[in-house]
């Protein structure tokens, strides 16, 4: 289990382009692979953020008893404030179904966290995503700052944009200022969306590194892949 799952860890939320049409089903080269990742984003009522974080820190062990938590973050910069997102790993869809059924029957989880927390949440969103073929889930070296960069890609999936996007991502990686945690391609939810999760030693090192990387022609060329 990764060392990035602390509820106290804060994340930089990168700019997200305008939402595209959602679908309950998408096709793509990763569709029939087993392991997938569920991205859950909760927007909290402004006055309830601290209360929610206290509840999750106290009770998260009840949820992780059922399935693996990759990470749980609160947003510090960018996008909508008073927001948390968390990523859960599942072996396959049958595994997720079993977990959801078990959670529904877990009285302690329901009574101590889920039911009391519903009144604190303003909005919920979730997506199911696969790691792109050339990415694997990495472990950050130590505590730091995380960034979830979200891109709305042109239709066609990794077969269309995979290689040039990989070159752009590696252009950032090779400069050494940031560590890639994983690159995910949505399968359920908003279509043609890619999430890139980064670890940075600090917000300042992230800012300096990105300024330099955007002068790299591989990064500039990747901009043609997006809507």
From TrEMBL:
Pfam families in the record: NIPSNAP
Gene Ontology biological process: mitophagy
Domain NIPSNAP: 37-136, 146-220
Alphabetical list of InterPro entries matching this protein: Dimeric_a/b-barrel, NIPSNAP, NipSnap_domain
The family this protein is said to belong to: Belongs to the NipSnap family.
Name of the protein: Nipsnap homolog 3B
Source species: Equus caballus
